[in-house]
């Protein structure tokens, strides 16, 4: 970690102001728990573990397989093997840690009520890798806003067998504080990921970043289910491409009314950059096709409610939300 | 037929001003061809044939079965049998008639280019029983506006076997002229249906009636596919019920901008009257589930285009149209 960055002011957070891994630079001392060990949890936790961090995975279905064979990450031509993984079936076996990485689906948040408390010490930080809006608020309301950080993961992953992750593309992670500018803590976590070979950065306004990502997820995740259309199909169909643009325009208006500064060109860019994705299937489409819960509230419901509450007119986002809620029910 | 009504002015139509079945009252002299012998064509044509009208069915798949066994209509506890049916496999065998009843799906209109000409004499009238907007225009553009009448069928039918029709509910038919007030001709056809036991009426403004029906079809046919929701499910879900109301409000605005006088209360009534329908599956849902073409342009595309052309703002109708076009493609 660059010393200059590590000394940035951390907005007065208790956890970062006190002693501990978020000020000290020895990442090996940081005890990390990963809750939710699907593809995202195994990939990001596995990369940290491979770099030598003390990562403890909370697992259910894959526990025995991972204890026996560890984690294997196939990533763009090479294989990252983590043969010895510390994995547990209950949070009590893990006990208090310095950082909890939350990689459950947002649809399973209720389970955190029982899973998190055994992991919490006085200064334990929470980092949610979950999609959409509302997850930081969920954590903050229960365990204190000062603990909460969030991250946006730009990554294409697939869990192909217990403990085996295929990493197709990208992988960067943007880490920010809940309702605060980037802190030394957020930068330290970003550095930990960077040291583990994951492109990462700390962001000053986490919610603005979430809205920027939503400007893609709302149209493309939404239409992947509502129209059964992969990204290339949306872009090739005049009507659906216009609908995607209209959904982005509505979402952009909502984001701005909520105080997020996102330029007009960003809306066009979300369309233009998608042409290179080909027949990409957004995560919501994969979840739905596999019969898994889809994060309807985090990606569609909460943005619609927050935008409408700020005075935005969002007929298409609302309609998309109502259709998806019924389709995926 | 009431003589007083038969002498009503017929808006100067050539066909009705000249001699022929539309002025004379002997319905038995009227030669009628039915093109498109699915459930709708067999029901309405069969009822006329049962009453003694000269009805000639153009059939494809069911031709042999109907020639052998005739038509059977199970209608609310009783059976209407038409043991001897005049059915042909080509329009040339039928030849020119006085009235062609068109009961093809609107999605098959292109076939009319070959099917209709052999049936047309100088005064042959065309009556389309098809759904939505654009069908009268299609006929008028090819064979002359003066020939064209349209009808709205309020009926629940199912073809359960070749020549066998289940008639569940309702059955009334509203008949009007294309871009003209009800003529003596329209009244004569309505009387013919009434004489055959079909509740019928002539309407002064056919397109207004079409829009009134669309105010139900757009939300309920649309959401039956886009949300996979039967009528009761739409009404029981707060979000979908509001969406149905919003779709009706947009459609009502379009209808008014196009000059159709429909009161506000009609929008509420379209919701209220639907509660008694239970788990009704709109025809579009049945078509889609059976793998048949769905009348997307007539029910959604053309109303959206006409409404938008008149200055209406229809984000939800447009979105529904674009989604349905892709889903049913």
What does this structure look like?
2 copies of one chain form a homodimer. In chain A, strands 1, 2, 3, 4, 5, 6, 7, 8, 9 and 10 form a 10-stranded mixed beta sheet that branches. Chain A folds into 2 domains: 27-204, NAD(P)-binding Rossmann-like Domain (Rossmann fold, 3-Layer(aba) Sandwich); 209-328, Orthogonal Bundle (N-(1-d-carboxylethyl)-l-norvaline Dehydrogenase, domain 2). In chain A, helix 9 (206-226) packs antiparallel against helix 11 and helix 14 packs antiparallel against helix 15 (315-327). With 329 residues, chain A is α/β, with parallel strands linked by helices. In chain A, helix 7 links the parallel strand 7 and strand 8 (148-161). Chain A has 15 helices and 10 strands. Mean pLDDT of chain A is 90; it is low at 1-21. The interface between A and B is medium-sized, with 22 and 22 residues.
In N-to-C order, the SSE pattern of chain A is HHEHEHEEEHEHEHEEHEHHHHHHH
**What is the CATH topology descriptor of the largest domain in chain A?**
Rossmann fold
**Structural class label of chain A:** alpha/beta
CATH-scheme architecture of the largest domain in chain A = 3-Layer(aba) Sandwich
CATH superfamily of the largest domain in chain A: NAD(P)-binding Rossmann-like Domain
Q: How would the blueprint of this fold be written?
A:
The structure is a homodimer of 329-residue chains.
Chain A (H helix, E strand, L loop, with lengths): L2 H4 L7 H4 L13 E5 L3 H12 L3 E5 L4 H7 L1 E5 L2 E5 L3 E3 L2 H4 L2 E6 L9 H4 L4 E9 L6 H9 L4 E14 L2 E14 L6 H12 L4 E3 L3 H21 L4 H6 L1 H20 L6 H9 L10 H7 L6 H14 L5 H13 L2
Parallel strand pairs in A: 1-2, 1-6, 2-5, 3-9, 6-7, 7-8, 9-10
Antiparallel strand pairs in A: 3-4, 8-9
């Amino acid at each position: 970690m660059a010393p200059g960055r590590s000394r940035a002011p951390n907005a007065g957070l208790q956890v970062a102001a006190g002693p501990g891994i978020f000020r000290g630079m020895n990442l090996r001392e940081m005890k990390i728990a990963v809750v939710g060990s699907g593809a995202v949890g195994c990939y990001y936790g596995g990369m940290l573990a491979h770099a030598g961090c003390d990562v403890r995975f909370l697992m259910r279905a894959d526990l025995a397989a991972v204890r026996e064979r560890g984690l294997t990450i196939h990533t763009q031509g090479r294989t990252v093997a983590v043969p010895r993984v510390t994995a547990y079936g209950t949070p009590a076996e893990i006990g208090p840690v310095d950082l909890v990485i939350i990689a459950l689906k947002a649809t399973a948040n209720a389970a955190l009520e029982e899973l998190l408390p055994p992991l919490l010490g006085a200064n334990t930080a929470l980092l949610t890798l979950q999609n959409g809006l509302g997850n930081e608020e969920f954590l903050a309301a229960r365990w204190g806003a000062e603990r909460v950080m969030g991250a946006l993961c730009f990554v294409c992953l697939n869990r192909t067998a217990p403990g085996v992750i295929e990493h197709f593309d990208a992988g960067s992670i943007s880490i920010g504080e809940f309702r605060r500018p980037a802190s030394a803590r957020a930068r330290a976590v970003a550095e930990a990921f960077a040291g583990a070979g994951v492109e990462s950065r700390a962001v000053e306004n986490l919610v603005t970043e979430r809205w920027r990502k939503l400007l893609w997820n709302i149209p493309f995740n939404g239409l992947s289910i509502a129209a059964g259309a992969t990204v290339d199909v949306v872009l090739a169909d005049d009507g659906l491409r216009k609908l995607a643009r209209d959904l982005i325009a509505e979402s952009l208006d909502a984001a701005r009314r909520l105080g997020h500064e996102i330029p007009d060109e960003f809306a066009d860019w979300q369309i233009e950059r998608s042409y290179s994705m080909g027949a990409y299937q957004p995560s919501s489409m994969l979840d739905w096709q596999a019969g898994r819960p889809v994060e309807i509230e985090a990606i569609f419901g909460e943005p619609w409610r927050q935008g409408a509450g700020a005075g935005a007119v969002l007929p298409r986002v609302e309609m998309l939300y109502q259709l998806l809620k019924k389709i995926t029910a």
